[in-house]
Amino acid sequence: MSTRRPLFLAAALVFWAWSAKAESKVGARPVPATRSKTTSPVGPPPGRGRTTVGKPTHVAATRTPRVRNPTVELFQVNRKETLILRLKDDKGRPVKGLQRRFDQFSRCHYTNVVHPMNPRLVKMLYEVGKHWPGKRIEVFSGYRHPNVAKNPHSPHMQGLACDFRVNGIANTELRDYLRKTFERVGVGYYPNSSFVHLDARKDRSAFWIDYSGPGERAMYSAAPDEDLKSGRSERFKPEKIDPSWATQDEEKEEPTGSEAAPSEAPRVPEQSPSGGGTEDRAGSGAGSP
Predict the structure, then answer these.
(1) What domain count does the chain have?
(2) For residue 254, what pLDDT band results from cuts at 50, 70 and 90?
């Protein structure tokens, strides 16, 4: 028994030393990090100062509300007067006194005489203004008194016509719009002037080109549609007779014998087509039939 106890104690000490050494090795091993199924992002949550990257958010575009009955501005070039044109109010009711104000606005700028204007002409001018929103309609001539309308058949004398342009819009574009949009109208194009003519008619529509300039006698094209197709309406410039030519001939002595007249006399501008009628164009407002 005396010999067995020391052996047992020695074995116990060896086992204890081995166990302590093994535990020290196991404690030195790195412990693997455990991953969670859900990882929270670093930083503040979305909506609190943190910008998140993802699908773009579609924001509904703000649309400008369409005015049901917009206003159209008319400006009389000769008298520097303005008329705000609107056929109906916000509730769709006809604007009171509109026709009377338009008649006053369209009075003859030569004689200041007021004449009733055609209601359909008012509506067509309003449609022109709506077609080019924000563009001012500049009127040169509305009603024309018989004393100044040298064409006895001029629709201006009956309150049926208006000479105008749209500010910022080419007269060629205005001309084409009037012809395509309205029925039973007369459209006159004046490539050497500043406006387009429009009148209301009871029968079929008509179109003409007048190559004369302000203050000149009318010079109508014999084939206006052909001139548009060929481009002549934009290229043709009528020759003008120098008024000093006649004065110089009167001052000079009449040639005799071998002193003949000039080999080529000044050309006379082409005449207006038959049945078209002519009219002296006085300034900017008397240029249409």
Answers:
(1) 1
(2) very low
